[in-house]
Write a structure and sequence with these properties.
Elements (H helix, E strand, L loop, with lengths): L1 E9 L4 E10 L4 H15 L2 E6 L2 E6 L3 H13 L10 E4 L4 E4 L10 H14 L1
Parallel strand pairs: 1-5
Antiparallel strand pairs: 1-2, 3-4, 5-6
């Protein structure tokens, strides 16, 4: 699993990424998941707001959302390919990219149809 910490710089002609850090994680799936989560957590800033005497702490990204995104990249990836899962940390977002795709009998139309059918029956 690889993590790229990037800063995007914008100009009139092009957008370029400046790498601030690059990490690769090896080992068992559980070991990678724990190490990657801890690394991402370092960049998930905490900020506080105050309402009278009450201090309210919040994070840039909910911890449960980061855990879910990380878990999805590991659970739903196609392990028949030898490629790393990529996580890119930008100043304004985190992107999780995992290799694989839809199984051969599915396409975007069938996925949309299943989604609509499930929504109608709920």
């Amino acid at each position: 699993m690889s993590i790229y910490h990037k800063r995007q710089q914008f100009s009139r002609e092009l957008t370029k990424n400046v790498f601030k850090d690059r990490r690769e994680f090896c080992g068992s799936i559980m070991q990678q998941m724990n190490e990657v989560y801890n690394y991402i957590d370092l960049y998930n800033k905490t900020y506080s707001t105050f309402h009278k005497l009450l201090r309210i702490d919040a994070r840039d990204y909910p911890e449960v959302a980061l855990r879910e995104a990380l878990m999805n990249t590991l659970v739903h990836r196609d392990y028949s390919f030898r490629a790393a899962t990529l996580i890119s940390i930008y100043d304004d977002r985190i992107e999780f990219v995992s290799v694989g795709g839809l199984i051969s009998v599915w396409n975007l139309t069938t996925c949309w149809w299943v989604f609509l059918s499930a929504e109608i029956h709920i």
